[in-house]
Each structure stands twice: as structure tokens, then as C-alpha cells.
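WARN no homologs supplied; continuing
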Amino acid sequence: MGNDTNDDGGWKLPSFRLDGRVALVTGASAGLGAGIAMGFAEAGAEVVIMARTRSALDDLVAKITARGGKASAIACDVTDTPALRAAIAGLPRLDILVNNAGTNFPEPIVDVSDEHLDIMLDLNVKSVYVAAQAAVRKMLEAPDRLERGGVIINMSSQMGHVGSPNRTTYCMTKHAVEGLTKAMAVELAPQGIRVVSIAPTFVDTPLVQRVVNTPEKRAFIHARIPMGHLASIEDVMAAAVYLASPAASMVTGSALLVDGGWTAP
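OK structure emitted
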């Protein structure tokens, strides 16, 4: 909400805290999802983490609670549409969704198999849509939703804004996520639900380390990032906390590029 006062000292910095909010993070067993979940818990949210592997989820819940946070886990394959819908419908309340689950198979277009194409479309696009749809239904159950607000953060990529060799399928899916984000934002604004995306560059995670596995690949990527290095999980964690917080109350339908300048030229 805007403030029309011109009186010096009449403005107050909005809160970056998430106290009293319930946040669901998919793909949260490791990497970016785990980092975002820990960041949300540190900011005061009650976090529900979702992934396929129960043991990894339990380990993360233990880490969050050891730091004084609140967390619980749901073991669910997000490509199992009925199970995903049921899991979200069964939550007592939901204020924030981070659609983080996704994958990539970098390969030339002539080598993309039907199997890889289907896997990436199911995980990177369909599951994102289904999770968002189910989350909106759950959010709208709250009678004070317009006042309380709601946030959906779709994890996109710098590849949702540019093209890149050997990433035709990945770029296609992330461009789809960006389009979904804009359409949802326009439709849901009257209900007080904001929809945004985060578009990181290559982030220093075990998954990326397996992709950037030669000095030549690392040199190529560093040369494309004006900042000269990979992003950290903390970089993306901070972006997610900001977008989920009241400090971003007028931010919807847009992408926060955490790309070190990759898309700037």
C-alpha cells in the first residue's frame, strides 16, 4: 500500500519477516529448495517441505528445528498429480508456495528423446501448474485472504529469458513458467495473491557441479556472467524471502533475475 505523506520521517520500512505465515516449498530435500526453506524458517514462517525422499526431508526438518524454526515434511512426487493435489488440499492453511521442483537434461536438440521431453514437461511445467492451482484453491479458503495476502513463487531460470545451446527443452519449460507467472498474477491480484518468479543463473549446488564438471564448462559459464562467478544458494534464498515478505507487496507478475548480469547484454 502506498504512502502519500511528504513529511520527513513519515515512512516506515516494510517488514521482511514472515511471522505467522505457512509456506510450502517443493523440491526441498536439497539445494535451492532446502536453502529457501531454511531462509523462510529463519524469517519466522512455518515451513512445509516436500520432495520424494523422506529421509532427506526428515534431516532438513531436524536442522530447521535445531535452529529454532518450525518445519514439517510431506513425501510426495510432484508429478503424481492426484497425490500432489491431495497433499496441498490437506494442509490446514497455506500462505506461500515456492514451486521449486524441476530438472534439466542438457543435450543437443537432435538428441532429445521422448522420455526426456516428457519428464521435463511433466516436472518443469505440469507439476508447477498443478501445485499452483492447488495452492490457490487452498489460499482462497481463508476468509481473510484479501487482507492476509498470499504469494506464489515459481522457480524459473535465466533460461526463461534467453536461449542457449543444448537447452531447448529447458528453455521452453522455463519460458512457459514465466508466462504462467504473468497470467496468474493478473488473474489473482483482485484476491490479494501475488505471483512472481525467481530466475537464477547457474547456482553453486551439487546438481550444477555435476553439469559444470570440466574447467572448460566452468570457464564458459563464468565468462557469460559479468559478476564472474556462480550464484550462491544464499543469493536465491534472500530473493525468495524478499518476494514472500510484505516488503514486496506491490511486486507481482514479474521475474527477479538473480543472474549476475547474464541477461543484461
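The chain has nine helices and seven strands.
OK
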